[in-house]
Design brief:
The protein has eleven helices and twelve strands. It has 272 residues and is α/β, with parallel strands linked by helices. The strands form three sheets. The chain has a five-stranded parallel sheet, with helices on both faces. Strands 6-7-8-9 form a four-stranded antiparallel sheet, with helices on one face. Strands 10-12-11 form a three-stranded antiparallel sheet. A hairpin with a 4-residue loop joins strand 6 and strand 7. Helix 5 runs parallel beside helix 6 and helix 9 crosses helix 10. Keywords: DNA-binding, Phosphoprotein, Two-component regulatory system.
Length: 272
């Protein structure tokens, strides 16, 4: 079974739900497969940020054989940021340890905050401190060298699939979108602020992500798998522990139920 088939099987249920919710119509399996193939066959431009040129050229050759286009190869954080500003690649594969006064972590953080382009770290560093710092740039994958070509291919396809779904409405974010919730609570999707009356509620990054995904289609329920995949990205969708803890702490902050559990499925906002 090749990596594309594995990706399709792994995400089949999730993709059916996503496409059905987007179109609000019943679709056939043939329609679904056509949409999937259109996504997978779309030309993807990748920026490689690696200061070991032999490794960079080898990766470029491997990625081109997989059907990807290479936006460029950069060896410093400064050049990587400049390249992204000028060329807007679809995804960045970033080494953490780069020459120059900026690290790959700093470059990735700036690229993510400025352009929301998905980052995949491919590095020799796997210590706890480096991994923790890397999370600030919200990478979609963290791969340790040496890495199999198949693993890189799957990481790219999975990252793009998640990114295209969760940011499909990003152009709407230029407009102010305020959702009225139960008990006089409001969630401002543009500013990412939960408030009650004149008081804003201080939320953690993951708590904000929880409200982000629930408020994307406020009247609809969102599955546990989709929520976990959005918040934790590369975590196992079968691990509910972190989500339960997040929900418990979030409810403790609020004096009213502004979202509800949908039995054995997920969560939904409680609207005013």
């Amino acid at each position: 079974m090749n990596c594309i088939h594995l990706l399709l099987l792994t995400n089949f249920k999730m993709i059916v739900s996503i496409i059905t919710n987007i179109n609000h119509i019943q679709i056939t399996i043939g329609d679904l497969m056509n949409k999937l193939m259109e996504f997978l066959q779309k030309t993807v431009e990748i920026l490689i940020v690696e200061d070991e040129m032999v490794l960079a050229i080898d990766m470029e050759s491997s990625l081109e054989e997989m059907g990807y286009e290479i936006s460029g190869i950069e060896s410093t954080a400064q050049d990587a940021i400049k390249h992204v500003n000028e060329n807007k690649p679809d995804i960045v594969i970033m080494d953490i340890n780069l020459k120059g006064y900026k690290s790959g972590l700093e470059a990735a953080k700036e690229i993510w905050q400025t352009h929301k382009i998905p980052i995949i770290f491919l590095t020799s560093y796997s210590d706890d401190l480096t991994v923790k710092k890397s999370m600030e740039s919200e990478p979609y994958a963290y791969l340790i060298k040496p890495c199999r070509e198949k693993d890189i291919d799957i990481a790219i396809k999975t990252a793009l699939h998640k990114h295209n779904y969760f940011f499909k409405n990003k152009n709407l974010m230029s407009e102010q979108i305020v959702i009225d919730l139960a008990q006089n609570y409001k969630y401002d999707r543009t500013k990412r602020v939960l408030s009650k009356g004149l008081n804003s509620i201080k939320l953690t990054g993951n708590e904000l992500k929880f409200f982000d995904i629930l408020s994307e289609n406020p009247k609809e329920s969102v599955s546990f798998e989709q929520i976990i995949s959005y918040i934790y990205r590369d975590e196992s969708v079968s691990d509910m522990g972190k989500l339960r803890t997040l929900v418990y702490r979030l409810r403790a902050k609020l004096d009213a139920e502004v979202f509800e559990n949908i039995y054995e499925f997920g969560y939904r906002l409680k609207l005013d």
